[in-house]
Amino acid sequence: xxxxxxxxxxxxxxxxxxxxxxxxxxxxxxxxxxxxxxxxxxxxxxxxxxxxxxxxxxxxxxxxxxxxxxxxxxxxxxxxxxxxxxxxxxxxxxxxxxxxxxxxxxxxxxxxxxxxxxxxxxxxxxxxxxxxxxxxxxxxxxxxxxxxxxxxxxxxxxxxxxxxxxxxxxxxxxxxxxxxxxxxxxxxxxxxxxxxxxxxxxxxxxxxxxxxxxxxxxxxxxxxxxxxxxxxxxxxxxxxxxxxxxxxxxxxxxxxxxxxxxxxxxxxxxxxxxxxxxxxxxxxxxxxxxxxxxxxxxxxxxxxxxxxxxxxxxxxxxxxxxxxxxxxxxxxxxxxxxxxxxxxxxxxxxxxxxxxxxxxxxxxxxxxxxxxxxxxxxxxxxxxxxxxxxxxxxxxxxxxxxxxx
Length: 405
Ligand SMILES: C[S@@+](CC[C@H](N)C(=O)[O-])C[C@H]1O[C@@H](n2cnc3c(N)ncnc32)[C@H](O)[C@@H]1O
Ligand code: SF4
Prior knowledge:
Layout: E1 29-35, H1 63-79, E2 87-94, H2 102-116, E3 118-128, H3 135-144, E4 148-154, H4 158-163, H5 171-182, E5 186-193, H6 200-212, E6 217-222, H7 230-236, H8 245-261, E7 265-268, E8 271-273, H9 281-287, E9 291-295, E10 300-303, E11 306-310, H10 314-322, E12 328-332, H11 336-347, E13 354-355, H12 361-372, H13 378-382, E14 385-386, H14 390-403
Parallel strand pairs: 1-2, 1-9, 2-3, 3-4, 4-5, 5-6
Antiparallel strand pairs: 6-8, 7-8, 10-11, 11-12, 13-14
Helix pairs in contact: 1-2, 1-10, 2-3, 6-8
């Protein structure tokens, strides 16, 4: 399911890193735990996730034990290239992590704690589909140490949810947010804009309802039409219109206006938080070049400059680990040019910006032109940082979408 994995060089069956690689004790370490199960697939989504009919023998009830094997393997691999570092952030993503019993998520978290340690004050997030969250589930997760829940709201407007093929009941968003808040968790909601048939007023209604839930954090993503999805087929056959770039740009501006007016600050192109303390530290670690290990089928990792990724199907993943082998399917070490480009693309997405000093000569000369074009904030540039204006953010998002295979 989902898009193909990149090519790359093979990884030894014990998962060891290339000779000479050492981890830096001063670099933060984060953990991503992928849960590749969904009850139904939403029409727009190409994430590496599987419904029960697509599992080819992989068992959801054995998933936690399988993943715990990868955690032990990772501890061996990392322990051989430096001191183990406690996780500063842990993120259960999916798929739908809350399709598993909370006890399974708690066991995986315990495995992370035993293998690496979890830093005091760590951010521990669980992504949730609103239909799978109850007070009981949230209470168990909070007792296990979860600090944050991210709820997939997407829209508050029935015809938009239908266009997205979402099956969750809109009223369950309110219940899920209330349950998470009641258990003392930080709460985020995800929204998508630009669905077929969605008007600017529809989007305004979704934003207003999301704000009325008083979450700590809101992600608002421009709908991407991913190849191979049901939505892409519907658009190709002319059954529904393709997203309109100008309308999506207006929707972005409306989100930034309404969220800003309600006390949410943008800190990444698609993410707004009610104050710095509510930013997603885990996602920031992706944008700022920290080390992380992604566990689970199809998960990607980044350790000491090496990128590697796992086999995609849960059955292949389980087979590898049952045989005592690493589930990694390939790896690459980006060269210096690729790193510079990646650093620029990632760091300019965030409000903290890219230090001008990290640009090479040519790039530095381009800053004045970017300011003149209204893409870079002049005041931040004077203080040595490249921070995008709203117009710059819209362009940066379009560029990343165009570059993403
Ligand atoms: C793993 S899902 C969140 C949890 C849960 N599976 C759910 O959907 O309710 C991660 C988020 O990615 C976003 N997303 C997925 N596919 C997308 C696409 N094609 N375009 C834009 N956003 C997308 C959605 O906002 C979704 O909430
Ligand atoms: S529930 Fe979430 S992960 Fe699953 S198909 Fe829908 S958007 Fe994708």
